[in-house]
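Tokens help. Our protein:
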Amino acid sequence: MGLRHRGVNYDTGTNYLADGVLSRQTLPDDVMAGEIRAIRDRLRCNAIGIYGTDLDRLVRCATVALRDGLSVWLQPRLINAGPQQTLAHLAEAARAAEELRKRYSAVTLNVGCELSIFSAGIIPGASYGDRGARLTTVRGWPLLPWFNQKLNRLLAEAATVARADFHGQVTYGGGLWERVDWKPFDIVGLDYYRVPFNRSRYARNLRRFHRYGKPVVIVEFGCGSFIGAADKGPTAHELIDWSGSVPQIRTALDRSERIQAEQIADMLDIYDAADVAGAFVFEFIEHSHPHVADPRYDLDMAGYGIVKVLPDDHTGTYRWEPKLAFHEIARRYGSD
């Protein structure tokens, strides 16, 4: 496989919920180090996209990955924050990333992910879910040019803030609906999911990003593990109902790890043929989406992890097992 950066995304804990609870409650050093070694040795990655909210966790994880010989693409995420809070958080991350770059060199800074919905102040809405839903309404689409103007103003500031302290390469994770001005960035970074509306022109559209004369990297792509997941793309997680005391799947789903494996393999082949510089699968593990036998509560199906989390209710710990997609990715990443 000709991808220069063969990677996977790794969540250190992100504040998706309104009360600030992180998607990963704890990050023990030994557990994290073991997972990173598996990413390098078993998944055959040479790069890792490390993202999350807590900056100390980002630095700890990045340090381990860099010591293990992986290149690190560091991305701070602060969900539902306004522009100034987002930029202040980015400034701290940029200073930390520069210290890592000085010591290990192989660090790229990603200033954010789909900020038009994950950040407040661009698209109206009280939460990222509200803002994402607005995009699908008749009222939302005509306003996209205005939303993109606001996004690009924020991204220009973000690039300036990042470069004030970080002196390596800088990128961003642009959503399918975002029309990013890539001039402030060194790398065109795409959250490039395949869904029904872009399936027929997925490869053709990808090649168009070479017109910027910069490396193109797929910083996020993936698929759920159920029949029909290929049509859901990045919205598979919306099939989980989190409102009750025990989260459960909203509708009956048939588990299929084969669907996930086939979709990811197909997209990797497209990226290879399109001469992109790298790709990062979303994602390695999702602790908040465990696999259980009862399909009503098998949250792993509606997640994007390429390993399944198997909790031990008696000890409060967990173990994980590779899914079919894990083996398919390892085969392709290790083919050179």
